[in-house]
Amino acid sequence: GLAAYFATTALAQSGPEVQEARAACRQDAERLCSGVPPIEVQLCLEQNADQVSERCKATLGDIAKENENHD
To answer: I want to staple 25 with a disulfide (CB 3.0 to 4.6 A). Which of 20, 36, 37, 56 is the partner?
Structure first.
C-alpha cells in the first residue's frame, strides 16, 4: 500500500526535503490514491494536483526541481 509507495518512489530518497514530502503528502495520498499501485502514487498526486494540499503540492514541486537538477 502507501507504505510501500513511500519506500519505492522518488519520495524514498533520503534528506530533509524528502522527509517533509512524506509528511506533507501522506494524507493526500491516502485520500486520493488509495487504490493506486505504490509505484504510481507520486504520478497520481501530480495528476490530482488541484485536490492536494498546498503543502504537498509545494513539496512535490520541490522534489521535481531536485530531480531535474540530477539529470
So the answer is: 56
Name the grid cell of 11. 519520495
3-state helix, strand, coil split of the chain in percent (to 5) is 75, 0, 25
CA–CA dist 60, 43 (Å, integer): 10
Residue 5: pLDDT band (50, 70, 90) is: low
Of the candidates 6, 13, 66, 64, the one whose C-alpha atom is nearest the C-alpha of residue 39 is 6
Q: Which helix (H) or strand (E) holds 44?
A: helix 41-47
Q: For the chain, what's the residue count?
A: 71
